[in-house]
Design brief:
- The structure holds two protein chains of two kinds.
- Chain A is of the alpha/beta class.
- Chain A is built from six helices and 13 strands.
- Chain A has a single domain, classed as HUPs (Rossmann fold).
- In chain A, helix 2 crosses helix 5 and helix 3 crosses helix 4.
- In chain A, 45% of the residues are buried.
- By secondary structure, chain B is of the alpha/beta class.
- The chains are: A alpha/beta, B alpha/beta.
- At the A-B interface, helix 3, helix 4, strand 7, strand 9 and strand 12 of A face helix 3, strand 4, strand 5, strand 6 and strand 9 of B.
Chain lengths: 251, 288
């Protein structure tokens, strides 16, 4: 079993987003970084599947040199090695991202049985990189998955839909994008972090093509920054709250 | 002509996609005439229609399935796709505004490609009736890869109580609840109001509540009449899930918490004191 999990470095946004002066990125002067929540679960799933079935796992990212921090974080929970497609930090559109990942996958000696992604990135949310990668590699792709079981060379994948779960059974090798909730990711241990420092990171520098979905600038949506009506402080506010509930017709 | 891939004539998000598409030309709405969902096969069917009818643009609602099928179309044609657009303006190339960070940020982008491929963010425009939806059968010209990804089975999950997504009132707890046991007061208030219990991502990460209770960008999106946020700071991850609420009441001891910038009503205080007091007051008001 050889598993690849793809992740993306994104800012750890708090309550209020502030843009850079050129309005092309979030100002991260006061922010840390993480990977998208769905991808945290993808990494955890890779580690669990290898624990159950044996084999090896690798994490891949396309991002700036600093994204090595996220690769080490993922390796700290048990993923064995990393591939880093190093960029200068500029925006890559989803088509270019998928093409670079496909090139990197083709260049590996040992083919992957399973390629995991998050359903969509936390920041750009383009909803298409896993599908493009699968298509280019001629592999089946299932998305938004909340349970994976391996059985006899195939993958049984469950997707949450209103009122139930849809089940897909696809042959391996395959591409699966997962959603948060498929598992509860573990925290890295201190020995895990130390081991991660020594794990191999293969760095490649793909060329960035002209984007066809070309980000021009970012804007903050209107309507943020309401003035809340303060109903009171502490438990003494309860009668006023109930008055509001009555006004709203809820009691 | 603009081809719009819809679920059904009555589906609200499909009607919104149709309304959005009118800015780009005459709309031809199609639905795939099949009960078995198979994203790559459905996309191949749309690719054939594109070859036959040569539309200027192909749109779909920005739902899980709309985004998935159009991403397959985009991959098959090797064309760009702009997911979850809120507006489009003509030009060479056209400009779109699309949703990022679950709606906490907007992106202006130039969309190249022929045809233009876009999905429409839910509730970006008002729905308009779809006059005519053509039911298109799935094409026979499918590769093995197109056929293999299909829903093999539907497992029904028994519904327990009020569903989070449909509840009129959601009472949600955040890190400030402090423990799994601390949710007793949240559950009590939700039950008195006939509502559902929600929580923030910090709570599910701590293992206090299941992910099915999580409201947020990577959890459930809710749209109740009233959302009561207890001990929730108001991170963008959470707000992306509850911005559809008609009214928001925030209970937080920190008067500077960013949740108050999105709230209609504020109570500054410890939820462990405030929430039980509200429950007591509701019982009193009901004469119990």
């Amino acid at each position: 079993m050889n598993i690849l999990v793809c992740v993306k470095r994104v800012p750890l946004t708090g309550g209020k987003i502030v843009l850079t002066d050129d309005e092309r990125a979030i100002s991260t002067r006061h922010l840390g970084f993480t990977i998208s929540p769905h991808e945290e679960c993808g990494a955890e799933e890779a580690v669990r599947l290898v624990e159950q079935h044996g084999g090896a796992s690798t994490v891949l990212t396309l991002g700036p040199a600093e994204a090595e921090e996220q690769l080490r974080d993922v390796m700290a929970i048990g993923v064995g090695g990393a591939v880093h497609l190093v960029t200068d930090g500029s925006e890559w559109d989803p088509q270019a991202t998928a093409n670079a990942i496909v090139e990197a996958i083709r260049a590996q000696n040992d083919p992957y049985d399973l390629i995991l992604f998050g359903n969509e990135s936390a920041d750009a949310g383009n909803y298409q990189v896993p599908i493009r990668v699968a298509h280019a590699l001629g592999l089946p792709c299932v998305t938004g998955i909340k349970a994976i079981a391996m059985q006899d060379g195939s993958l049984r994948c469950e997707q949450e839909v209103p009122g139930g779960r849809d089940v897909y059974v696809v042959p391996m090798p395959g591409v699966v994008s997962v959603k948060e909730g498929i598992n509860l990711p573990r925290y890295p241990s201190v020995p895990g972090r130390l081991r991660a420092k020594r794990k191999p990171v293969e760095a490649l520098t793909p060329a960035r093509p002209e984007p066809l979905l070309e980000m021009v600038r970012l804007t903050l949506p209107a309507g943020a920054g309401k003035q809340a009506q303060v109903l009171g402080r502490g438990p003494d506010a309860a009668p006023v709250v109930v008055g509001v509930l009555q006004e709203l017709g809820l009691i | 002509m603009v081809l719009v891939f819809v679920t059904s004539p009555d589906d609200e998000l499909s009607q919104q996609a149709g309304a959005f598409a009118r800015a780009l030309g005459d709309v031809e709405a199609i639905a795939i005439d099949s009960t078995g969902y198979a994203p790559a096969a459905w996309a191949q069917t749309i690719v054939e229609l594109i070859e036959q009818r040569d539309p200027a643009a192909v749109l779909a609602p920005g739902t899980d399935r709309g985004n998935e099928v159009l991403a397959h179309v985009a991959a098959k044609l090797d064309q760009p796709l702009a997911a979850n657009c809120v507006s489009v303006a003509a030009g060479e190339p056209p400009s779109v505004v699309r949703v990022r960070w679950g709606g906490s940020l907007l992106e202006q982008a130039r969309l190249h490609g022929t045809p233009l491929l876009m999905t429409v963010a839910p509730h970006a425009v008002a729905a308009e009736p779809l006059s005519d939806v053509e039911a298109v059968p799935v094409t026979d010209a499918l590769s093995e890869l197109d056929r293999v990804v299909r829903v093999a089975e539907r497992v029904q999950t028994p519904s327990a109580g009020v569903s989070l997504a449909d509840a009129d009132v959601v009472v949600s707890g955040g890190r400030g609840v402090g423990s799994a046991e601390g949710f007793a007061v949240i559950e009590e208030l939700a039950s008195l109001l006939g509502g559902a219990v929600g929580c923030s991502r910090a709570v599910t990460s701590a293992g206090w509540r299941p992910h099915t209770d999580q409201v947020g960008q990577t959890g459930t999106k809710v749209s109740p009449e009233l959302y009561i946020a207890c001990g929730i700071s108001g991170a963008t991850q959470h707000m992306a899930g509850c911005k559809g609420a008609k009214k928001l009441l925030a209970i937080n001891p920190d008067g500077e918490a960013s949740i108050f910038a999105s709230a209609d009503y504020a109570v500054i205080g410890d939820l462990h004191e405030v929430v039980p007091a509200i429950s007591t007051e509701i019982r009193k008001a009901r004469g119990g």
